[in-house]
Prior knowledge:
Elements: E1 6-9, H1 16-33, E2 41-45, E3 55-63, E4 66-76, E5 99-105, E6 107-113, H2 121-131, H3 133-136, H4 150-153, H5 167-180, E7 189-190, E8 193-194, E9 196-199, E10 204-205, H6 206-214, H7 216-229, H8 237-244, H9 249-272, H10 281-292, H11 308-322, H12 324-366, E11 369-370, E12 379-383, E13 398-402, E14 409-410, E15 425-426, H13 439-445, H14 449-470, H15 485-494, H16 499-524, H17 526-530, E16 533-535, H18 538-565, H19 572-580, H20 583-595, H21 606-634, E17 640-642, H22 643-658, E18 688-689
Parallel strand pairs: 1-2
Antiparallel strand pairs: 2-3, 3-4, 4-5, 5-6, 6-9, 7-8, 10-12, 11-14, 12-13, 15-18, 16-17
Amino acid sequence: MNTDYIQYTGRHKPDPDRAAVIELFLKLFRRQSGVAPDAPTQVAQISAEDEGPDLTYELRVHKNKKWERRRMSVGIIGENPGPKGRSRTASRTKGSKSTCFKVTYDNLLVVKVPPAPIGRFDDYLESLHTEGRIAVKLEPEIEFVAPGVTAIMRKIHPFKDAEDMNASELEARYVEWLRGHPTDQDFLKISGAFVYVMDLSKHAFLSQVVEAMHDPEIHRWRMGEEILKSHNLLWDILEFENKYGSENLNICFEINKVYDQYEIRLSDMMREHGLSFPIPAYRKQEWFLFHLADRKVVRLDETFPDGFLDAFNDMVRGVLLEFTEKVEAYRDVVLEYVRDVAFIQNKTQMAGLIYNILHLLACLRERRIAIRDLKPDNLFVVAEKDKYPLFIASPEDASLGLIDFETAVDFTEYPEKEIPQPLLAGTPAYATPSHLFPNRLLGQTLTELPLVFNYQDWQAAVAMIYNIVTGELLFENTRKLLFKTKKTVQKTTELNLPLSEGFKEVSRIYWSGAKAEFESKISGKKRLLKSIPVNLSPDACAMIGEDIRRGQRNTEKQVRKYVDAQVIFHSDKNRKSLLQAPAMEVGRLRERWEKGENLPKMPPGMRTQVLRLLRDLERLKSQSQRQKKLIRLMEKETPRLSAYDLSRVLFDIVFNAMYREEWGALDKSGMSEAAPETGVLAGNEPTLIYEEAGIFEASE
């Protein structure tokens, strides 16, 4: 399309990435409107930058001496929200990972722009087949939305018998039609290269569902509704206490004082306007509550003179502004109540989503596939229309589907042939250092490569569970540490050290932060996480149980290794006692050595060595006992874990598999090594890619 005919109006012109997508759909709109390719065209942004990450535009084409108009919205999947979750231009990494856009044009579409331009139609069709190669291996257990030509072509050339064809037949029909109409292939191109388009009209992203549950604007609106609905609470102390708690009674008393000031000033206004008729108490209260609910009175009866309404609203606003601290304290109490009510209403849905995340992990494990970039923007919720989005009453009411397989790896044929090298990429808030290093190194340092890939998805699941329950990022600070990877590996190269040493140092830095932030965050949200009970499906239970048993065996091996390697307690009896003693008994022995009670004579420094050994053994034995308890739980007919306990189980398994003690002690300060802010903000963020940066050239 000749962009010379496009006129962008308003203060904001879209960034080049969005503009390219807009121009594709503007071309489509021209075709649908039946205007000439060179007809004048306008694009106007009609949503403000602070209204959300998806910006709305009005498309205009000039036809028959007037403008025909329609709207569309464009958001970059992985775009970073600015303050309070608002839109800010994405800071994406260019290279070997596609850029994805969420587009609403009649229906919800995902437009994926490959990094390497595809110019030939046959190459494009081959790439569509490759894109869906892993996806089809997950059928029918896991739904997916694959790219194709149908999503766009049905908008410009609908077939009369389309309803009689299934999706595959319709896709094949459009492919054949496009071969005979090569000029219409341009509707599948951006900047002259083919793009992938997926139709998500039947579904919504997991991120949208989570945002709806925790949307601060919805909570704020419900706060206003709660204030208006509970109109008697301000003047009924017992009811206020019953609903909002005795600890907030003082706020009720304070807001009553504000109301007294409002009444005095309303009386003054009446006298100033020469009005002597009485205003019923319930009416005065109603007007006050409108403003307390952050609204205003929009109508008074005809007995009030012109101009009184505006003056009245200004007066009430002035009173509330004068007592801002008391007013906001009251609103915060109501807002907290509204949030608690919403959380209770959403608990079943949260549990259902977590159940389905675990089921997804189990299905991937069974099929020997890892996605490696799981995140709320790459998952969609499959649910019946009348139950979506906020009425998922049980796990069976919904499931999770996938839209992006670009970073995925299929190790179905392993070990018969070498596992193919996947794209070295990951979204920082959901990734680990292992996402950014090649297979050969991971196999050398972590062993069991298929498990490493599975655990990459598990780490993402831990972050998503926290996000579902709290609406917040779990590894918000830790993700910054992944941006130090390149610098750390370059330093390894300069010192002429093996790349494995760089990986170990990156891992030490990352897991120091991850463990510290994990402990801090889930402890802070323990009450909420504990209140979400999650039933485990049989396949998820088998998967987690298998990994706990593996971890428990490794823990027992570590205990034996510690006992065998130590040279302090020589006798067979002492060694046997150390092996068999439970954690509590080892703890009592440690306490005795710490206090120095009845200790034998020993060389200098021996006591320090004994204490170190006993502390390590106590920790390992406590870990083994927890693992045995979990194994027994997994053997129950219907095991259930809270979101809190589930997060701990998954994180511990991932951490123990991804980090080795011999690489060095974790930094106890956790985030002391955090990188400075890089421009990538909290929230949904782009995939971090290092493959094309050439950082893996360090000597082996």
